[in-house]
Amino acid sequence: MTLWRPLLLLLTVGTAQAADVPSAAKLAAEQTVVRHLKDEPSSLSPLKLVGLPELQVVRDLFEGLLTQGADGSVQPGVAQHWRSDDNQHFLFELRKDAAWSNGDPVTASDFVYSWRRLVSPKEAATFAWFAQLAHFENVDKIVAGELSPDQLGVEAVGDHTLKVTLSQPVPYFLNLLTHPSLSPLHEASIVREGSAWTQPGKLVGNGAFILADRVVNERLDLRPNPHYWDRAHTVLTKVTFLPINQESAATQRYLAGDIDITESFPKEQYARLIKQIPAEVYTPEQLGTYYYAFNTRQAPLDDVRVRKALSYAIDRQLIASKVLGTGEKPAYHFTPDVTAHFTPKPNTLSTLSQPELDAEAKRLLAEAGYGPAHPLELTLLYNTAELHKKLALAIASMWKQKLGAKVQLTNQEWKSYLDSRQHGQFQVIRSSWVADYNDPSAFLELWRSSNSGNMARFASPDYDALLDQASRNTVQASRSQLFDQAEALLQEQAPIAPLYQYTNARLIKPWLKGYPINNPEDVAYSRQLYLLAH
Question: What pLDDT does 252 receive?
Fold first, then answer.
């Protein structure tokens, strides 16, 4: 093995992962927090993550090599320190006190087992593309079924040393390692329990909390993991997640004192809430974009003119200021303004007035063969939630008034919606993307032709080539230029219509402290939280 010159060395700091409680703070006698989830998690396996409902819970149940601090910075997790001199070859030294919730030690082999399953075609893991984004050695051939998973560039060099080899330098690799999909897995319990391994009493995790109880569509109860390496600095004694997909219902429960922190609140209630409880309303910018995706493999949306017409006809300023009105920015590009290393460039959506965009939309649609005698007919799918319905109604109205389009709205519950999305059973579908790390590639890689999250089925060799060049480029200015070109191509082909940039809108009780509200990735661990006496 090559002995690498240390590039980065971080030693364990006992409180780095814990709640940062001021010495003068008077804590509440009961440290029980109730957190709102937007939906019931579809799975608690790191291999089956889909969206925010799963991520919020899995971050508490599992811990990867690295985690994030309150500001989004990379912090030690299971890895006590690491080194590399080329951003391509890494050695991670695991802390010897890291343990599973059943007391077994966490070893390098647990990561090897997990990551091999992540990329195995048999597993069909939802975030297999994430391993491809990280450019683990041989990952593309493994995902394609051309090599076995044991050829992945990861090796246990002893119980507490993990060697990782990438196929190329990846400047943001350490940031990727904070994502829950790269958590370790406890092989023995999974083999023993089979598909039931994520149930209470059977789930063996290595995070700060364990799954104590779960009532589907009602609640998930978590208790501190007695074997967590930093258990002494975890303040909360219980965390309850309540899955409520109706924002108004969640807000009502919050105002009644049943919830300590919400994932969101109804946009139409913003003015009232900011007047009624100003110190409890938070709306910082977030690394997220709300968008509509077009099924580019299905008529009439296989015609780029139709896609561009639909995108142009959406009045994003009206959506942001009137339909929403809680600080969101119109999205004229897919990558949010707050993203590191990204400076928005003027484009058609941002420079033309809405009347000019509407005129161009009508021209394009007529050119595609649609008009009063042959109106465009579409279905628009969204998952059940007040906001999604409100936006769908507003945009369908715009398409009807401006383009004469006949739009059928269809709403489905989360799991049915995910199934329709996965199998391409839609024409237009609402979705959103919240970045898993702070870099333009976190957004633009989603539309790579091979990405499993590419629900638009968009395929462009030119687009893929730009991303390939950016992934190999270590000069940040050059990478940014390539991402700008990818954004321009994305707008020209219009597989999606970005609508608005997210704010991290939520309600937080004044006695709940430690929530990293200014982390643009909105990564929060319950071990960071604590309650003041009130």
Answer: 97
DSSP-derived secondary structure for 307-376: HHHHHHTS-HHHIIIIII-SSPEE-SSSS-TTSTT------HHHHS-HHHHHHHHHHHHHHTT-BTTB--
- Strand ranges for 435-518 from DSSP E: 496-503, 506-507, 512-513
Measured distance CA(498)–CA(473) in Å, rounded:
27
Q: d(Cα 339, Cα 229) in Å, to the nearest integer?
A: 33
The Cα–Cα gap between 368 and 379 comes to 18
pLDDT at 473: 83
pLDDT (0 to 100) of residue 17: 56
Cα–Cα distance between 344 and 484 in angstroms, integer? Answer: 8
CA distances from 129 to 53, 234, 288, 369, 418 (A): 20, 33, 19, 38, 17
| Cβ pair 395, 387 in contact under 8 A | no
Distance CA 99, CA 372 (A): 67
Q: Cβ distance 403 to 376 under 8 Å?
A: yes
Measured over all CA atoms, what is the biggest interatomic distance in the chain, rounded to whole angstroms?
73
CA distance 452 to 41: 19
pLDDT-flagged residues of the chain (< 70): 1-17
Asked if the peptide bond before residue 226 counts as cis, ω within 30 degrees of 0, the response is no
3-state secondary structure 188-233: HHHHHHHHHCCCCCCCCCCCCEEEEEEECCCEEEEEECCCCCCHHH
| 8 Å CB contact between 260 and 512 | yes
CB-based contact 527:230 (threshold 8 Å): yes
Characterize 252-276 residue by residue with b for buried, 16 or more Cβ atoms within 10 angstroms of its Cβ, and e for exposed: ebbbeeebbbbbbbbbbbbeebeee
Q: State residue 89's pLDDT score.
A: 97
Retrieve residue 292's tokens.
Answer: 């509509």
| Residue reference for tokens 């600095």 | 233
**Can you list the pairs that 170-174 forms with residues at least 24 positions away whose Cβ atoms lie under 8 Å?**
170/87, 170/88, 170/134, 170/135, 170/471, 171/87, 171/474, 171/476, 172/437, 172/439, 172/441, 173/87, 173/90, 173/134, 174/8, 174/66, 174/74, 174/82
Residue 424: both structure tokens together: 């391409």
Rounded Cα distance, 522 and 22, in Å: 22
Degrees (nearest 5) of the Cα angle 483, 326, 350? 35
Report the phi/psi class of residue 194: left, alpha or beta, with left for phi > 0 and alpha for psi in -120 to 50. left
